[in-house]
Design a protein that fits this description.
The protein is an all-alpha fold. It folds into two domains: 242 residues, no CATH class; 244 residues. Helices cover 82% and strands 0% of the residues. Helix 12 runs parallel beside helix 16 and helix 14 packs antiparallel against helix 15.
Length: 525
């Protein structure tokens, strides 16, 4: 049998025998394809946007994106509620109940849409003054803000079909569609820059892509979800949905602030130009957060089915596997970022945009902390009992923001103060969320600490070496990367060395065995 026939046979088995492991893999594969195309498009567009819009307007564009992302939480988050509710109902054949959940999502969107429009109007009026924009740019900024506010309002409606697919654990059925739409969006933005449409044209490209996304995802969902439809929910169903949406709404505010507050605080307490430098230097560390999220989100619907069936022991095993895989990925790629982010930024947009070695290390630590917080937050979501999680998130966000402002404004520590404040404030969640997960899954809190000490020690050692290689290697023998092929080769070599080190030093024998078994089961050998 030829190699190509073997590969085709493995692919056929993968697509035909849809176990939870294979569904999770296909979900991750689809999301990874979408994500890497999206960041590839963003990577290619970033220097063109900086050159075409200028430092100030590009920084304003980044602030607008962060601000509208934060305000989108005011949608009530019905798509999030719909996704996790359907995940726990996967085994149910009560299609009317599932359609009623879709109806509830639409009613919540209608209820919150006026609030989104009001918040968008406030941004239109006040944003130019907030970022201290020159008066001649105010009309442009207001039109662009209006377009993004409309996009923000429509996004909930656009995302309902995607939420249905993901809740039914068949998100992989849209394989390649989002990737194609990302490429199309990049093309629209290039046209806007070519036609000198500026910030308004870039915003219009985003809105156009969103509308197309909603239409095409609806067609995919119609094809693969036989029960698709809308039913009028009962009062009790709607009340329960509203209650969950309310907590998801507050959590979205918290998570949006966690993701966007750094850019907003830098813009308000420092300068828009520093936002540009910070955003570009943070590009790869932030990408790591999203890459790890692909794996967690891909496995979450299957984990929801296990929890919904009451198999807490099985859920605990899956959660431990997710934690081990998360640690492995973050440690390997975190060390690579510490080693090679400076030459990456230099080759990409220029040396002036790299914010420094210390800042690079602190941003990486801040992002890894956020990854583990999000992991446990997603497990808690599956319980559909969010009150404690959300209240702790609010407390942590307030504490992190206060500490960051104090360190930036009073001690003038800049990006260093921002990162230290966020890391300290989020430590509340780093400690509390594993305890909530332990309670949900019936685990002893102390049972999770044994392996954690080993993992933390390995991560700390590798990160220290990666951040300060000059302490261990003579500078005269250190590799100086001057070209893209050289950077790719250096990163690949680092990946090989770090992968072996992490796999054998950081994981126990049992963890290594379980990972290898998952791989064998996935490929059918």
């Amino acid at each position: 049998m030829t190699l190509s026939m073997k590969m085709f046979g493995s692919l056929s088995r993968l697509l035909s025998d849809l176990t939870l492991t294979r569904k999770a893999f296909l979900n991750v594969l689809a999301a990874a394809l979408d994500y890497f195309v999206r960041i590839g498009v963003a990577f290619a567009l970033a220097p063109l946007l900086v050159a075409g819009l200028g430092d100030f307007i590009y920084g304003a564009w980044r602030i607008l994106g962060s601000l509208t992302g934060y305000l989108s939480a005011a949608s009530g988050r019905p798509t999030q509620t719909l996704k996790w509710t359907l995940a726990t109902l996967q085994s149910s054949t009560d299609y009317h109940e599932k359609r009623a959940q879709v109806g509830s999502a639409l009613l919540v969107w209608l209820l919150f849409s006026p609030l989104l429009l009001v918040l968008g109007g406030l941004c239109i009026f006040y944003l130019p003054g907030w970022i201290d924009a020159p008066r001649e740019l105010w009309p442009i900024l207001r039109v662009a803000t209006a377009i993004l506010a409309l996009n923000m309002t429509l996004m909930t409606l656009v995302e309902i079909p995607r939420s249905i697919l993901e809740g039914e654990n068949i998100g992989f059925r849209r394989m390649g569609l989002s990737a194609g739409l990302s490429l199309l969006n990049g093309g629209f933005i290039l046209l806007a820059l070519h036609w000198n449409a500026g910030l308004v044209g870039v915003a219009a490209a985003t809105l156009t892509t969103s509308v197309l996304t909603g239409f095409l995802f609806l067609q995919v969902t119609r094809t693969y979800v036989p029960w698709l439809g809308i039913a009028r929910p009962s009062r009790s169903t709607l009340r329960r949905f509203l209650d969950l949406s309310g907590w998801f709404f507050v959590w979205r505010l918290v998570m949006s602030w966690m993701m966007a507050a750094d850019v907003l605080l830098l813009g308000m307490l420092s300068s828009v130009e520093l936002v540009t430098s910070y955003s570009l230097s943070k590009y790869v560390p932030e990408a790591l957060v999203n890459i790890v999220g692909l794996g967690v989100f891909g496995a979450a619907p299957g984990l929801g089915r296990i929890i919904g069936a009451g198999d807490l022991q099985g859920a605990a095993r899956v959660r431990n596997e997710i934690l081990a895989l998360t640690w492995l990925i973050t440690t390997i790629f975190g060390a690579i970022v510490l080693l090679w982010n400076e030459p990456f930024i230099r080759l990409w947009v220029g040396t002036d945009y790299f914010f420094g070695t210390t800042e690079n290390a602190l941003v990486m630590l801040m992002m890894i902390q956020l990854i583990f917080i999000r992991n446990d937050a997603n497990v808690i979501d599956l319980s559909l009992n969010l009150r404690t999680k959300v209240m702790l998130g609010v407390l942590s966000s307030l504490l992190a923001t206060g500490l960051a402002i104090a360190l930036m404004a009073w001690l003038e520590l800049g990006v260093v103060g921002l990162c230290l404040g966020f890391i300290a404030g989020r430590s509340v969640l780093t400690a509390a969320y594993p305890l909530l997960v332990s309670r949900l899954l019936g685990l002893s809190p102390w049972s999770q600490l044994g392996g954690a000490f080993r993992s933390v020690a390995v991560t700390a050692g590798l990160f220290f070496v990666a951040a300060r290689p000059d302490l261990f290697v003579d500078r005269r023998t250190w590799v100086v990367v001057e070209t893209w092929p050289g950077l790719v080769l250096a990163m690949f070599a680092s990946f090989i060395v770090l992968s072996g080190s992490c796999f054998f030093l950081g994981l126990s024998g049992e963890q290594r065995s379980i990972m290898l078994q998952r791989v064998r089961r996935l490929v059918g050998i």
